[in-house]
Amino acid sequence: MPFVGGHSCSCKPGYTGNGTVCKAMCDGLCQNGGTCISPNNCICQQGFTGKRCETDIDECSDGFVECNDKAICVNLPGWYHCECRDGYHDNGLFSANGESCIDINECKMGRNTCANDTVCFNLEGGYDCRCPHGRNCTGDCILDNKVKHNRQIWVLDNDRCSVCSCQTGQVMCRRMVCDCENPTADLFCCPECDPRLSSQCLHQNGLLTYGSGESWVENCQQCQCLQGQVDCWPLSCPPVDCEFTVVPEGECCARCIIDPCQADTIRNDITKTCTDEHGIQRFSGSSWVKHGTECTLCQCKNGHICCSVDPMCL
Question: What angle do CA 102, 108, 109 make, to 5 degrees?
Fold first, then answer.
């Protein structure tokens, strides 16, 4: 217990430290990047809520997002994006609300399952397999150069977790439905049905455990417990199409901003130059030490001069 000016200091209940510097404590810790600001009080990153920031806000179901009618809202941990519906793909502009989604011509691109005795007709957002006049079409499907009869059901050779069926000339596939009450459930396809302790995973902080199949966000990565093994990959962020972007503190995805001096990343345009204090033309992306100073570094950002003082230089 340190003494300051002849007095002893200790942290108040709910805080930990040496008495001079105290830090708030939160039982169970703040999850998904949340910050403990006072005893048992977490401030959550955008997109999460709950006492421990354990709950992802579903912007799609809560009505916060309105996607184009050709797109569907997909909720992500801490975020969302508008994804083109089946039968559509993006034209390369990647608009935030999905208005850049355009129809896929499945017939022209060969992305259809029409049987050899039917004719493919492209439709908005899909296609139709029609039987030419005078023929007796079977409704069978062709998959990997093999005939699948109408209403036939099978499991994919290269993906035992997908079940497919032939429905009047069209191959329809879906993920296997997991029934954890079924003792013969395939744990490879349904890791959430594995009750064994050996299939649980320990959180990176060493304090939380997750069951097989559960997922969480840690350091801007999406992590999942798969039969005792933790697998993490970069968090999926929606594309941004703007000149200046920044990743706000406590967030994982870039956002568009107007002020170039606050930008983390810029889309350099070499035609937009800057003129420094000596009248010298500087290309976008170049940097220099401001004349008359030793610690002020300036940078040209698409015609805008941004200067800042390096505190390590003072």
Answer: 75
d(CA 106, CA 126): 7
3-state secondary structure at position 34: coil
CA distances from 186 to 153, 154, 181, 183, 236 (A): 18, 16, 12, 9, 28
CA atoms within 13 A on the CB side of 118: 22
| Residue range 177-203, pLDDT digits in tens | 888 888 887 877 887 777 776 677 877
DSSP per residue, 155-212: EETTEEEEEEEEETTEEEEEEPPP-TTSTT--TTT-GGG---GGG-EE-TTSS-EE-T
Percentages (nearest 5) of helix, strand, coil residues in the chain: 5, 40, 60
What does the pLDDT look like over 215-224, one tens digit per residue?
888 888 888 8
The answer to whether 286 touches 297, Cβ cutoff 8 Å, is no
Please give the domain boundaries of the chain with CATH numbers for all domains.
3-56 (2.10.25.10), 77-175 (no CATH), 191-234 (2.10.70), 244-309 (no CATH)
- The pTM of this model reads 0.38
Nearest partner of 106 among 130, 85, 128, judged by Cα: 128
User: Closest Cα partner for 152 from 137, 141, 165?
Assistant: 165
Task: Considering only CA atoms, give the Rg of the chain.
Answer: 29
